[in-house]
Structures are given as C-alpha cells and as structure tokens.
Amino acid sequence: MNTRNFKRIAGVALLAGVIALAFWESGRRRFEVPQSRSEVVFWHFWGGKDRPVVEEICRRFNESQQEYFVRPVAMPGNNLDLKFFLSVAGGDPPDVLNQDDPIVADWAHREALLPLDAMASPEEIAELEGWLFPAARQIGSYQDRLYALCNGLDIRALYYNGDLLAEHGLAPPQTLAELDAAALAIAPPGEPHDRYGYLPDPRRLWSWGIVFGGRFYDPRTGVATADSEPIVAALDWMASYSRRYGPDQVARFRKGDQALPGAAFPLLEGRYAMIMDGQWRVAEIAAVAAAAAKRGEQVPHYGVVPLPPPPSGVPKAGWVNGNFFVVPRGARNPQGAWAFMKFWSGFDGHEGEAARACAGGGWIPASQAVVDHPTFQDYLRRYPLFGTFVELASSPEQVPTPGVPGAQFFQDEVIRAAEDAMYKLVPPRAALENANRRVQARLEAARAKE
Amino acid sequence: MIRTAKPGPQPTSVNISSPTRRRGKELLTVLPFIAPWLLGFLTLVVYPFVASLVWSFDRYDMLSPPEYVGTANYERLADELVTGQRFGQAVWNTAYFALLSVPLSIVLGVGLAVMLSWQVRGQAVYRTILFLPSVVPIVASSILWLWLLDPQAGLVNYLLSLVGLPTPGWFNSTAEAAWPPGWFSGQWGFGSKDALVLMSLWGVGNFMIIYLAAIGDIPLSLYEAAELDGAGPLRRFWHVTLPMLSPVIFFNLVMGLIHAIQAFTQVYIVSEGQGAPAGSTLMLSLYVFLSAFKYLQMGYASAIAWTMFLLVVAATWALFRTSRRWVYYQTGRGIGVRG
Predict the structure, then answer these.
(1) How many helices (H) and strands (E) does chain A have?
(2) In terms of domains, do A242 and A344 share one?
C-alpha cells in the first residue's frame, strides 16, 4: 500500500470512528424524555462528585412520576447567573434553576422570576412558610413573598484541631477572648509562622458582623446599615490580626484557604489550629481521618464549635446562604418545576427523599421535618460533627445576605471594605462608611426601577 | 482661441454606462461571497458598537427597556475617578500595568531578538525555546504562574529564599514595586500588578519574532559602513539597529498598549474574578465585565467601555504624534529624511 492510499484509508477510518462515537454518545443519554411525559429542564451548577448525586435525585423523581420528566443540565462554573439571565432575556429560559448566590431579590425585583404562589395555593404557601427554617424562608423571600424554595443550607462554624490546642493547654474557644488568646498562644506576633492559631478572612465579615450583634440592613427603614457600631467593631477586631501580624503576612498566608479541597484543607494540613468553614468540610475530614487510620497513622482529634461571640455578641449567630430553586418567568413547565422542587426539598410529604438527598450530598436540610427523618438521623450518627451545623440551622440568628435588589453588589462591597481594612489598614469605620454609601446609592437607584 | 469639438466618433450612452454596469455586475458577483463576513461584521461589531454608545446614556438591565438618564453614567465615572473609587482604581491599575509591561516587553523583546540574531551554534533551538511560551494558552500560563508565584509554596519564592532574598507576596499582595512612595514606606515589595507584568513578559516571544524578522531586513551595508567609520558594537546597535527597528518598535508599542489596556483573561484568573486582593488587580476590562454581567448595569458598563475606547484612541493618537520624532522610515517619512 502506498502512502497516499494509506492516508486516505486512515482518514476515512478516523471519520467513521468520530461518527460512530457521536452516535454511541447520543445513544447513552440517560435522560431521554418519554413521549407520554412533559419535560422539565433543570439547570444546576453541580459538577465533580456532586453531579452523580444530583442525577440520582432526578432519576428517582422521574421514577416516581407519570406526568413530568426532569432533564438535568449541568453548568459548572462561575457564570450560571449570567447564562440564566441571558436565557431569560432571550426568551428561552429553563423550567427550573438551582443557585446559591444572593440573587432572589434582584431577579424578583426585575420580574425575572415567578413567585411560588403562581404555582401553589395560598394554603400550601402558608404551610411551606411554617415548614422551612427561618433562614431558608428568608433566603427565598422578597418583599414578604416567596420566590425561591430552599433545598439546603450552608452554615459556617469554627473547626479546631483539638490535639494542637491541647499541646498549648487550651480548650476549644467558647468566647471571642478565648479565641484571641488561643491564636496568640499558638502564633505570637513577630516572625512569620508556618502555622497560625487563627486568621480572619475578609469575606467572613458577613459572619462576624452578625456574631457581634450587627445587621447589615434595616428592613423597616430600607436603609443599609453596614457601618453600624457592631459591624465596625467586628471589622476592627478582624483588622487587629493584620495590625498584629502585618497585613502582608495575613494576606499571603490565608489567601485561597477556602478553595482548597480535601486533604489540602488548611486545618488538615496543620496550617491552622482553628479555621472558620462550612459543613462540607465534615465529610472531607472524615475521609482523610479514615484514610489515615487505614494506614495505621494516628489521627488528630478535630472538632467544631459555633462561632464564639464577644461579651456583647450573639451566640449561635452567623451568616448563612443556601441552595434554592427558582422558576423563571417564561418557563414552559412551571407546574412540573414545582413538583420537582417539592420532591427534592422534602416539602409536601417528601421528607424521606430530601433526607436521602441531603445525606448523599452532605447538605443541611431546609426544614426540621427533614432533619428529623430517620435517614438523616442515621447520617448524623455517622458524621457527629455535622450535628453542630444542623443545630445552628434552626437558629434565628443565622442571617442571609439582605434580600434587596443589588444584593450581590452589597455583598461584594462589604467584602471589599473588609479587604481594605485588613490588607491596606484603612480605618474600619471609614471603609464601612464608604461601602455603605455606595450600597445605599445602588439601593436607591434600584428602587427607582433600574 | 475658440475650441471646437474634435472630429471622430462621439461617445454613446452604451460607452458611458458600460463600466458602471460592469462594476454593478461585479458587485453582485462579489456580494454573496462576502455576505457571511459582512453580516457578521454588521451584527457582531457595528451594531454592538453603536448600541453600546446609545446605552451608555441609559439605565439598562437587559430585561426592562433602556431608560434614558442623560450623562448620569459618565458623571458617576467622573466622581469615581476623582474620589479614587472603583473606576479611579481601575484606571490606575490599568495605567500601572500598561506603563510597565509595554516598555519592558519592548526592551526584553529587542534584547532577545538581537541576541538570537547572532550566528551561534543551536540558534534555532534557542529561538524555539524563547518563542514556545507565547503559544501556551493564556489560561494555562496564568494558572502556571499562580503556582510559580504562590508566596507559600511557589518555586520562585523558594529560589529567592535559597539565596537569602526577601520573598514577595506576588498575587496575594497589594504592594506596588514601581510606585515611588512605597520605596520609602518600609512596605516595598512586589505585589499583584507586578506579578501580572512579570506574566506578560512570559509571552514576549510574539514581539521578539517580529523584531527578529526586522533585524534580518537591515542591509548589511549599513553595518559595514558604520564599522569602516570606526563604530563599535554598541554604537552600531544604537545608530543602526535601533533606528532601523523603530517602525517595528512603534507598531509593537501601539499594539502592546492596546492589548495591555484590554487585558482581561489573565486578570480574571489570578484575581478570583473580583480584582482581589483589595481591588489591586481591578483592571478596566474586568470592571466592565463585573458591572455588566454581575451587577447587570449595562448602561454604566457601556460608559466604562466607551471611556476605555477613547483612552485607547487618545493614547494611540499621542503615540502617532511623537512617532514623527523617533521613528525612521526608509520610504521617506519620519526622521532621517531631510530637505
């Protein structure tokens, strides 16, 4: 065979291979919509190990149904909001979307969402409001109307390495003064350290501000209060770590901490004795501990406590966000979307399904009824650290980002103020007053129908 | 003298119109071929260009119809510029990045090109090695630099610590190494913008190849003449190579400046999409993106984009004005041509 013929045959074979692969790939689509059912297009952001959990929930829903069929579309990445908004603007939105950014008020204000009462009866809505945890209800509300159904909460608490604390004769902190004392004992000011007792993260001003007794927004007056005394005090306390260790040292040591998964979680690496993080770290800690135990290595004792408050602060407090479903205006199948939302969140007699979903994904349920289900109680027995987060979920002091138009802008401006105070040593009050002024201007512009 | 019409055949109407008709026919033949491009150009370039100018005077969130607000968006920009808020910060960050990265890339590009023009063994290998980084996708190279410049575990800081040098915070620091007040504050160091400048030099191979080609075009007779006049290597470089390269340097200066002002991908990746830390990497293009697609302020974002466009035009115009003084064109324009 000459070279020319060989190239031709190879080219034809390659083309045939590509075509065969395309047919095979389309044939193994797992969510073919049966003709007798109406399709519900569901957009979500879960990828990696969470994606099979999500697809399993969809499969169970589809098996339970004669009328609707959910087709999940994974859109991992940071710009799901943008894609969704473009789809609404372009007139081709999905039927239901799951999201965790503070967008409910903003999108509802722009009339991009259907209120839940468009799909549910007043009695059902009243029952739902009582069924949800206070935080879950707030996350889904705008102007006292539910626009989103929360299916899982994200709560933050203080993880600690018990062995490391014990080495210094310390117990897990119950108060802010104890947290400071432990942080100082483990890493005295001076030379840079390889390990710190605790370092605040500017993004966590949202949590510490609430622990200090503050609120970022007054719904009665409609005024942003990010520069109120408790929040200024919280930021001043956070910036005290930068003054103590040097802003550059704090910035370079802690940047990216929150994004590091699994064994790279800084607590597991021994870079911190204490760190604030969410419930998703529980399963990671358990997995790493199990692997270490299998290798015959000694596993440090890890624990978790609620954020320790100052004397004038609030116990069991913090900032909360969560996952929620929204139905866009223009959705083709809102009733199908509503049936699916209820199935996953556990409302309307689906607590068992929600408990299974939460146990599968390591999520905190949005209702005590799901927490109480035997399936989830079983999960709590397997992961005892999770109990602290579940206990916090019912606290009325777990507060989400204010449900106002421009909430994302609000959230980012407060974080920027915290960064300015911690990394540039801008006086906390000045930084927060500046942020508050900008947020208030944005709020007023939004109310003038942006 | 009275002019009279020349005898001979008078032009007929057919003769007058046939070239026009032919041109029309040609146009009809050409149009279908260029139509796809033309359609794309009109819808993807001309329409957004004009629409963004109109929206820059509107309040617009994509869902509701645009509402005319006069010059409010531009007034907000002016206010933020004066008070050093976000837009002011973005202008400063962009200017800092552009004014450092463009001249440095020219110096490095010319230097490398001159060295690569030397006739040495393995010349092709050196050229390939130095050009390779510029074909690495920008996302991949940004992530690579994030790792290299990690202040805790990065290779660069590890090497610096081995020789006893201070280890900068790079992408985790708000420091500005080239800003004079920082030199005396005791807080001097390389910060996030300096790291971006360093990253931009990594892709200097593109410019280098253009300089290399231009060096190859310089007539050897010029060097021979200079040598006969007693010029050493440095004088030959200064009086022959640089003037002959000046049109290419000018081209790279203009293009580099435009690219630097529009820098987005690498900034988005290293700054967590937010301009972190503390807004030290908030560049103009990132600010346009955040305003438009995160906060849905399309009108305001359009105003930023148009201000950016005018900045680019002004900078390019200023460069063209100065180019008359230092760019040498063999074709008869610019310096070096007298009389």
Answers:
(1) 20, 14
(2) no
At A195, which CATH number?
A: 3.40.190.10
Q: pLDDT band at A198, cuts 50/70/90?
A: very high
CATH number at residue B296: 1.10.3720.10
- Please state the domain count of chain B: 1
CB spacing of B294 vs A408 below 8 angstroms: yes
CA distance A25 to A411: 42
Within a domain: A19: no
- E strands, A229-373, are 274-278, 302-305, 318-319, 321-326
What is the model's pLDDT at position B335?
Answer: 46
**Residue of chain B whose Cα is closest to the Cα of A101:** B294
pLDDT digit string, tens, across residues B310-320: 999 999 999 99
Question: For the segment B22-59, what is each residue's pLDDT rounded down to a tens digit?
Answer: 888 888 999 999 999 999 999 999 999 999 999 999 99
Give A217's contacts (C-beta < 8 A, 6+ positions apart).
A223, A224, A225, A226, A402, A404, A410
Of B172, B293, B296, the CB nearest to A252: B172
Contact B64 A110 (CB under 8 A): yes
A288/A205 same-domain check? yes
List pLDDT tens digits, range A143-154: 999 999 999 999
- Could you tell me if A349 and A361 lie in one domain? yes
In chain A, which residues have their Cβ closer than 8 Å to the Cβ of B190?
A: none
Average pLDDT over residues A273-289: 92
Which residue's structure tokens are 């940071």?
Answer: A78
Specify whether A195 is located in the same domain as A238.
yes
Query: Positive or negative, the Cα torsion across A179, A184, A189, A194?
Result: negative
Name the residue facing B169 among A251, A449, A450 (closest C-beta). A251
